[in-house]
Amino acid sequence: MLPIHFIRENKEAVIEKLSKKNFDAQELIHQLLEEDLKKRNSQTDLEQVLAESNKIAKDIGDLMKNGEKAKADILKLKTTQLKEQEKTLKVAVEEYNNNCQEILYKIPNIPADIVPIGKTPEENLNIFEQGAIPKLHEGALPHWELAKKYNLIDFELGVKITGAGFPVYIGKGAKLQRALISYFLDKNTDAGYVEYQVPHLVNEASGFGTGQLPDKEGQMYHVGIDNLYLIPTAEVPVTNLFRDVLLNENQLPVLCTGYTPCFRREAGSYGAHVRGLNRLHQFDKVEIVRIEKPENSYQALDGMVDHVKDILNGGF
Known about the structure:
This protein is 48% helix and 10% strand.
């Protein structure tokens, strides 16, 4: 989430950069800054009322010590009025603050400067590519037919017991899935990542903490009776381990890894007719998460990418 002070000080730049995402932020930012101004003005008024109340309380004490009860009683009436003002202003500050939070949830993070402007995949920037894309021979079978032929994955069984997008892994397919999870976890821990086994459901605060809520709510499975969400990726619970935690600089970087099943509704027409292991509603994932100082973020990202490249290339 972008800090309000950053948006306030860089309004036009934020609007321009978000346009790279084809997101028009102008109206939202206008609303945000209006609510923020109201909040700050109300906070200033509240602080003045509190200061006046404190001064009057001291004056009342002095008058009572001097035996001037009548004058003290007059000031007590003023104190009652200030208490009402204080109550009203506190409600206003909280209301404006909540309004700001709701708007901030709707404003995406700005993209990096290297992100090109574009609306199609062809306009994306190719950062890394390795090896030639293989050309399949005539009559080559797609992976879902190979999985069925060798009895590795049964998609129909998943439909039977749950629905589309929930495959059943069988025999060597299940063994391979389990082995890959252990393989990647071991590689990550050997590289210094600390393994975490985390819950597969999270609360609303965790969903907001990693940006799944509010705009991606339709992509998550919701357990209504408990108001919990099945996780779309291990990143959500692992990152939220450090939500509201203040880390000392000497504790950084924090390296985490974890395996979880992941659940995504994949709502929308783009996933309705995709076959095989694409656009699954449940799949397994080994995640790496690194908490770093902002100025080291790109270096940390490159290090994480290189770590995965080493694994895929049979390194270590």
